[in-house]
Write a structure and sequence with these properties.
Structural class: alpha/beta
Strand order of the largest sheet: 3-4-5-2-1-6-7-11-12
Number of domains: 2
CATH class of the largest domain: Alpha Beta
CATH topology of the largest domain: Rossmann fold
Number of helices: 19
Helix content: 25-40%
Distance between the termini: 11 Å
Strand content: 15-25%
Oligomer: single chain
CATH architecture of the largest domain: 3-Layer(aba) Sandwich
Largest sheet: 9 strands, mixed
Length: about 475
Amino acid sequence: MNVLFVGAECAPFLKTGGLGDVLGALPAALKPLGVEARVMLPLYNAIPEDYRSRMETIAEIRVLVGWRYAYCGIKELEHDGIIYYFLDNEQYFKRGSAYGYEDDGERFAFLCRAALESLSAIGYWPDIIHGHDWHTGMIPALLHHHYSWRQEYTGIKTVFTIHNLQYQGNYLPYVLGDWFGLPPHYMTYDHVEFHGSVSFMKAGIQLSDRVTTVSPSYAGEITTPEYGCGMEGALLSRGNSLVGIVNGIDDVLYDPATDAQLQAYYSAASSDAKMVCKTALQWELGLREDAEVPLIGMVGRLTGQKGLPLVLERLDELMAAENMQLALLGTGDPHLEQLFREAEYRHKGRVVSYIGFDDGLARRIYAGSDLFLMPSLFEPCGISQLLALRYGSLPIVRETGGLRDTVQSYNEWTGEGNGFSFASYNSGDMLYTLRRALSLWRNPDVRQRLVDRVLQGDYSWSRSALQYKELYKELLP
């Protein structure tokens, strides 16, 4: 079974979020199951030279973008047993980052068309093209209209994965012909039309053979007006063709027993060394070194989606009532960045706000924190809570999307659970749950039982990869 993944980013070459993690880890998890998965993505200027120097140019083609031709070089790299194809066009991809440009729509229109046009040049004919997020949503429309009449393309199926429905790729109607060369009859509600716009996301939802998203709970949530971002009707119309499969993490890359970024190695069999990581993190961040003071970690983008307004609303009250520390790492909304800088100033020595991103520090926060706070407004899947669990930090989350599917609130009566959660998005419920978690953490027996349990958990891609394989099998004769 051959599957071609197409996406806008992929770890370790260039990653801005969970999408890059998925494309970087899922193909390797599918390989032992007999699925030959390869990955295709843009050749960004920001991809490190270490990888670029090992790429081999295997073809040069012309790609029709609407009414004009564009150059496309195709470079190949085998990395850790997986074959990657990089599409080279300096006009579109010689940029400092993956997104955030005025011509993003045309850039990813080129990606969609180039992915299909390049198949004969690379000599790889997939049974399934698996596109990820809005950047690849037009592939099914292009495949049907421009390529289905060619014998070698006959039988290729499409899967489209929604990583975050909030980002949709909606553009003015003229792009239907100007970028894609598609006739007007595609501009209908059951094809690509969304409130008068051409929508990459809508095209992927309506025209792919299967639609997946990154957790079962999120799959249900996005069929409601609250979370559907206007596309709940289209998603409901897919019925059983819409499924949720929770993400995993690379449990070899992220392993506290071997992670060179940590000051001490530990595992479920020897969890005591986690305290070494905690005191080392306190020293590194300028916090008071005390193993008995609970340290709460936060790592991620500083946006309203992550529930940060709730934290800021109650932080002063929490710090006044509890003997605790907070270590935050992230970047994003400048206003939120400034508010957390001010919080650090008010609570010097107890709150640290590291504005920026440092992968090594992120891992040390996962390893050194006792509790991990993630009160998201919505969360399609979430990677941070899985990494926290992998490193033995007990998550405190709001019950939404993938957070609901991966974190089960601790039950004092049965002893079940692997973290703490609250349902309603309000600061009062968050504060109550946070203080409950702190109280239970201070019970050494409960603390040790929970830490040992989460360190023994399986957060890998193995279970999810099996689900993807079964989905692929359903599509093939």
